[in-house]
Amino acid sequence: FRSRARMSRLDKDAYIDYALLDTKIQQVKERLKRPLTFSEKILYGHLDNVEEADIRRGDSYLKLRPARIACQDATAQMALIQFMSAGLDSVKVPTTIHCDHLIVAKDGYATDLAKATADNEEVYKFLESVCKRYGAGFWKPGAGIIHQIVLENYAYPGGLMIGTDSHTPNAGGLGMAAIGVGGADAVDVMSGLAWELKTPKVIGVNLTGKLSEWASPKDVILRLAGELTVKGATGSIIEYFGEGVKSLSCTGMATITNMGAETGATTSMFPFTEAMGAYLEATGRSDIREASSSWRHLLRADEGAEYDRVINIDLSSLEPFINGPSTPDLAIPLTEFKQAVAKSDWDNRVSAGLIGSCTNSSFEDISRVAHLAKQAMAAGLKPQAPLYLSPGSEATRATLQDSGVLEVFEEAGAKLLSNACGPCCGSWDRQEMPKGQNNSIVTSYNRNFTGRLDSNPATKIFLASPETVIAKTFAGNLDFNPATDSIQTAAGEFRFNPPPQVDLPINGYQEADDGYVAPPPQRSNVHVDISPTSNRIQRLKPFASWNGQDYKDLTVLIKVSGKCTTDHITPAGPWFRYRGHLENISNNTLIGAVNAYNQKVNMVQNVFTGQIAGVPETARDYKQRGQQWVVIAEHNYGEGSSREHAALQPRFLNGVAIIAKSFARIHESNLKKQGMLPLTFSDPSVYDRIAASDRIDLLGLAELASGKPITMAVKPSNGTAWRTELLHTLNEEQIGYFKAGSALNLMALNDAS
Ligand code: F3S
């Protein structure tokens, strides 16, 4: 067997070692005496301590050794600022930084890129110099979206990676266990520490049949998101298996694993298939194809492996879905969508069609869409709304251009955006739609929280496959169904034919390595410059350690009603510019969260002055008074992006605990890392009893222990005090973070001792 292959064309000294993976898997199997699912093999095959690891799904914690790390520019700034404070000479695990979030979509590819390069010069220079100094790879703005670049260059079957972006699971389409984490977790791994993860449960998705007509890989995950909901897979890995897997392309599988993030899943993975081999070949990695083919028995579930839950999906009968608005799990089959539109207050005119994002920006996606656009244009039609296209990477863009695909969009009058996140992360300076105007957009993206794309709370965002998006944009109506409806033209009725299967580019992907900057051989003299007067980058000061006392007389900064994603806690869009500056970005803390008392956003009452003011202003006032505070929240608090700012900011402004009905995994872990207490009600109905003016004590902190509840004493301003129990998932190590003030503080303490 070929047991070693270079991890990527761009890493000089990093190798994939399948023989070692095999040894570790065998050791675990001997101990557990049972067959393993595919994701179990890959996770346990990367254990730091195979001999003594405690492996209980949904229960124990694993200490893992990821093989690589990827960070995007919006989260990398804070992660690298933290890494620098660890005082090491180089990153201990192959790491890459990708500039994709800060490019604002407005006028199109070249203009937007030039403007972003000028506007963010300080940030890009900072990131590039840190990469050069500490031995990480740097991908320049315009090179592509992090997950597409990872898929094209770094992902490989059987690997384990972490990324500071919640759609890191995209690499699961190439058989990798790729997990989204907060920056503080990435810093641990960069620093050479093992990474801790609660042993995930495994949800098996059995695919049978073959996609046909209008159904696409995106529809698999849109349908599954409807079934699992935004928190149904929390704490689990979604693992696909069954005959149907063989019929899917590698980038199609990546679409499915990418958007698994919307179900709360830790990650999603496909076992090794021929399509993965072909993709590796097309992207210049025949050595990995050869090695993974010869170790394919490792790269699938063992016979008889058991899942915690199995969901069956018959691809042959799967129909297209459209999910939204406002939440990605509101899945409506296209055949029922007309009715849903008729019953709603959604504007039935499509105001924009957007194709791209890390979920759907592959050569295959865009080629299939071009096929449909060509059909419509041949019938004399034009898009009825602005059409935006963003290829996933420069390699994909150049390949599409080479294959003549981009010409089709030019002819259709589409706006070609840079190879970046753009509107998907709120980096969209949308010109044609006034804020506050009710309108409907259809996108091939993955998220549709209110205000996510254009910062307009009145925009309704509908998620669909790229094929459905293009058909609706040409028709101009939201409720158009390409499978059953036709469009009136001067020559008669036009009806789309379903797009054909598109294979990989005949000559493989174009190489586009000029977007990559490798670290120099001599790094010690590289200077990393942070100006003390910068309003973009700021060195971090360590948070204060816990003073050993119970928290007393805490105020409730805000009692949040309904969904509270990281976009509500720390919105993106214009705020991206402050992602490296904790003090400045804290001015957006919780401005999108709805106050349960007045159902308004960014309007809370200051308990000292009685004044109604914004959430950040009120928090700053409390901080100035030395007043500590909590947030009260509902289910799945912190769902969505992995941004650790959502934990850092409340901590910076004197928050000490978030008390919720439940948490999203990454955010809960981020809170722990920053020394905040993520606490849940043992009785969720207690949420209703808490009032804005209540004072709260958190008692028994000196005895804080894994699995042991703490007591919350609630003191109403006029009424009898009452008590309740709060739960937490802190383990002993994480309790150490709390006591030290943060995980970084603990690392520094351990270093010093
Ligand atoms: Fe970027 Fe949107 Fe993906 S923000 S990383 S394209 S989810």
TrEMBL record:
Cofactor(s) this protein requires: [4Fe-4S] cluster
SUPFAM superfamilies xref list: Aconitase iron-sulfur domain (SSF53732), LeuD/IlvD-like (SSF52016)
Cofactor binding note from Swiss-Prot or TrEMBL: Binds 1 [4Fe-4S] cluster per subunit.
Protein origin, superkingdom: Eukaryota
InterPro entries, per database record: Acnase/IPM_dHydase_lsu_aba_1/3, Acoase/IPM_deHydtase_lsu_aba, Aconitase/3IPM_dehydase_swvl, Aconitase/IPM_isomerase, Aconitase_4Fe-4S_BS, Aconitase_4Fe-4S_dom, Aconitase_dom2, Aconitase_mito-like
GO cellular component: cytosol; mitochondrion
Record's protein name: Aconitate hydratase, mitochondrial
Source organism of the structure: Aaosphaeria arxii CBS 175.79
